[in-house]
Amino acid sequence: MATAAHWIAGARVRTLPAAVAPVVVGTAVAMYADRGVWWKALLAAVVSLALQVGVNYANDYSDGIRGTDDERVGPLRLVGSGLAGPAAVKRAAFLSFGVAGAAGLVLAATTSWWLLVVGVLSVLAAWYYTGGARPYGYLGLGEVMVFVFFGLVAVVGTTWVQTESWGTPGWASVAAGAGVGALACAILVANNLRDIPTDRVAGKLTLAVRLGDRRTRGFYALLVGGSATAVLVLAALTTWWALLGLGFLLPAVVAARAVLGGAQGPALIPVLQRTGVAELAWAVLAGVGLVVG
Q: Which residue, 131, 150, 192, 235, has most beta carbons within 10 Å?
């Protein structure tokens, strides 16, 4: 019988900075344009956090019933460990998606109804990452979808629901979305790098499995470098105060050194944590620069 602590662990709270970061910097872009709306930012945060928890439970369920988590090195999985039944974890996933949908419905009703399409696509992307007959996460497309939905869509959407315009805020939000999206991808890359041996045996052909160990490590470093470049682009589009965002390199460089140094298995777990901190730092520091500037 899973306890409350087990369910919290299954929700993978340490991944939540990846959900908060896009809302933080997207709101900062809106504030830079003098169009920030606090209650819409709060609703966007609810949508993003609920989707993140939902995808975590959905992955737990789908990987669990496939047996992918039978020999897992990383954080607790409810189904794989036998602490909770698949049906219960599936209900938790859809309850989380329901919370995201309710908050998104309010945003759509007060902004534009076409946002419902974006919401439906986001939920489908969350579910079919490891769910369905042909999950795209098993085909090496997970990083693409994380970049799109937890980077571009999350940041641009957060900015747009508050400004309801494109122009400079729109392009700045694209740059910000690329920055946090690259680091969100880096989190997934580090996770899949750790799981290459077990994923290969389970037939889960993640991008890391397809690239192999050495090239996956190089790809991680490339994502960190791309995120730094996005700070420069954001500063060029808005204010040079946004260069404060380069402070994310403090935790990111430590994580990259571990990856490039050959860390494996449990030694990659701190890399996941530091990359999550780096993503949040990117958003907060660049966001502070936008507000100050």
A: 150
Nearest one of 115, 80, 110 to 9, comparing CA atoms: 80
By CB neighbour count within 10 A (0-12 exposed, 13-18 middle, 19+ buried), where does 59 fall? buried
Q: Which pair of tokens denotes residue 173?
A: 């939000």
The stretches of 149-268 forming alpha helices (DSSP H) are 154-163, 167-194, 196-202, 207-211, 213-237, 249-260
Angle CA(209)–CA(212)–CA(217) in degrees, nearest 5?
110
Residue 137 DSSP one-character state? G
- Domain extent, residue 185, equals 16-292
How far is the C-alpha of 242 from the C-alpha of 289, rounded, in Å? 4
C-beta separation of 182 from 223 below 8 A: yes
Residues 234/175, Cβ–Cβ less than 8 Å: yes
Element counts in the chain: helices (H) and strands (E)? 14, 0
Print burial letters for 233-270: b (CB count within 10 Å at least 16), e (below 16): bbbebbbebbbbbbbbbebbeebbebbeeebeeeebbe
**Tens digits of residue pLDDT in 218-257:** 999 999 999 999 999 999 999 999 999 999 999 999 999 9
CB atoms within 10 A of CB 109: 11
CA nearest to 237, candidates 152, 170, 164, 139: 170
Burial class (CB in 10 A: 0-12, 13-18, 19+), 34: exposed
The number of distinct structural domains making up the chain is: 1
Is 52 inside any structural domain?
A: yes
For residue 180, which of 15, 25, 12, 14 has the smallest C-alpha distance? 25
